[in-house]
Amino acid sequence: MYFEDYDNRGGQDRTGDDVYSKPVRAGKRTYFFDVKATKGNDYYLTITESKRRVERDGKFVYDKHKIFLYKEDFEKFSEGLKEVIDFIKEKCPVTESRPYEDKAFDKDYADVNFDEL
Q1: φ and ψ at 12, to 5 degrees?
Q2: Where residue 72 sits, what CATH number does that domain have?
Q3: Which residues fall within 8 angstroms of residue 59, CB to CB, at 6 or more apart?
Q4: What is the pLDDT of residue 86?
Q5: C-alpha distances in angstroms, 104 versus 2, 15, 90, 96, 107?
Q6: Strands, DSSP E only, in the chain?
Q7: Which residue has the higher pLDDT, 26 or 102?
């Protein structure tokens, strides 16, 4: 996980008090599952996707997308999410390795003969 992501994960656009947070590093993205409380002490969930990219000047910036999920929608949301995940797993099985993470030291990838280029 990028620590800059965790420290700067949208501080200016936060609403509600933070109750619990779970960052999940997944490939080139970080997902933040944040439980927040309203003024009436009612909980809701924000899911933030954050992806680090490099600007032309070499500086890192973060593209962020946020979903607010309220407790009255948890059941329908989780049912829908499970259904589409099961569909994807059935139609296109997920492999454990990710090419952009694991292939950097692959034997065929690393054995480049520059005379042949």
Answers
A1: -80, -20
A2: 3.10.450.700
A3: none
A4: 94
A5: 20, 41, 29, 16, 9
A6: 17-26, 29-37, 43-54, 60-70
A7: 26
At which residue do the structure tokens 């656009």 appear?
Answer: 13
Domain count, the chain: 1
**Spatial distance between the Cα atoms of 88 and 77, rounded to a whole number of angstroms:** 17
- Burial string for 51-61 (b: 16+ CB within 10 Å, else e) reads eeeeeeeeeee
Q: How far separated are the first and last CA of the chain, in Å rounded? A: 36
pTM: 0.62
Task: Domain of residue 25: give its range.
Answer: 3-105
Q: 56 vs 28, 59, 61, 71, 87, CA distance in Å?
A: 19, 7, 11, 41, 39
Could you report the per-residue pLDDT of 26-53, keeping only the tens digit for each? 988 999 999 999 989 899 999 999 998 8
The residue length of the chain stands at: 117
* Separation of CA 10 from chain center: 14
